[in-house]
Amino acid sequence: MLIRVRPLALVVALALGAGACSKPGDTGTSPSPTGGGGGLTYTNISASDGTGYGSSVACVPFTPCDNGTGWVQTLFRRLQQRGSATLFNPSIPGQVISQHFEDLGRRIGRTYPGNFITNQAPFTPTNTTVLTVFAGGNDANTIGQVIQAQQAGDDIRGFIDTQVRQFGDDVASLIRAVRQKAPNTKIVLLNLPNLGGAPYMARSSALERGIMQRIAVGMTDRINAQAGPNTFVVDLMCDARILEPSSFSSDGFHPSDRGYALMAELAYPAVVNSTFPAPQADCALRRVAPAY
């Protein structure tokens, strides 16, 4: 049994051409906060989506990228309209959430440029007002690729469920690491869409799509479970617009300009309001592929 999961770009944003936005003197080698002083301090933790990879104006990591069309850049511009705001965005394409998923990928020869818990969370500015996290896409594909390589053992369902539980533990660890640096920050998590219905899986078999669905839905449930005091979850899983083909870039995995704009639109109320509705416990979009 094979599951066709396309490999993700690891550090492609570092080599983007004229479409990448930067300013003279930017080296792209170390993270530094950007924006004005005072007011809202916005920090984002994510992978290639944080650079807008797949959009019409993607960004080199650690550069201001004022005209970027990724969801972080779009959301930040909207926050600036409310008053003074600062952005710290240490997103690195290809990262996974934890060392566990780095080690898992190494079973099949994959390498990663680090992980969120080790390489991003410890650098959270102590004055962060709100922090967004979008995690799980690279981790889900890593699980799928291990299954594809027949390195998951005989109990595929058991393997998936074990990895999903680990992902949930890692999300909780990430939140703890952030709160150690910025105890009072509002944390806004974005859950995963159903990757079993994403365009990059369109040529896969029904079984393969069902496997990816089980992975993505399980991860979303673990993210949803983190909702609580000063921690909100934005529900990508149950918004039908997210899975529309026009919301994806040409690789069928990363969002397009429209997809990133939708992510920013959905995240904005959670970022600026003191209350936010919990994600839906169930919806039809959790079952777009045959159950596995």
In words, what does this structure look like?
With 292 residues, the protein is an alpha/beta fold. The chain has one domain: Rossmann fold. 33% of the residues lie in helices and 9% in strands. It has a 6-stranded mixed β-sheet with strand order 1-3-2-4-5-6. Helix 1 packs across helix 7, helix 4 packs antiparallel against helix 6 and helix 5 runs parallel beside helix 6. The radius of gyration is 18 Å and the shape is globular. The two termini are 13 Å apart. The N terminus is likely disordered.
Summarize this, please?
By secondary structure, this protein is an alpha/beta fold. It has seven helices and six strands; from the N terminus they run ββαβααβααβαβα. The protein has a six-stranded mixed β-sheet.
Query: Poorly predicted ranges (pLDDT <50, ≥5 residues)?
Result: 1-30, 32-37
* Structure class: alpha/beta
CATH superfamily annotation:
SGNH hydrolase
Domains, number: 1
Average pLDDT? 90
Order of helices and strands: EEHEHHEHHEHEH
CATH domain topology:
Rossmann fold
Biggest sheet strand line-up: 1-3-2-4-5-6
The number of strands is: 6
Number of H- or I-type helical stretches: 7
Rough outline: globular
Element layout with pairings:
Layout: E1 34-35, E2 40-45, H1 71-80, E3 85-88, H2 99-106, H3 116-119, E4 130-134, H4 137-148, H5 156-181, E5 186-190, H6 206-224, E6 231-234, H7 257-272
Parallel strand pairs: 2-3, 2-4, 4-5, 5-6
Antiparallel strand pairs: 1-3
Helix pairs in contact: 1-7, 4-6, 5-6
Identify the notable features of this structure and list them briefly.
292 residues; 33% helix; disordered N terminus; globular; alpha/beta; Rossmann fold
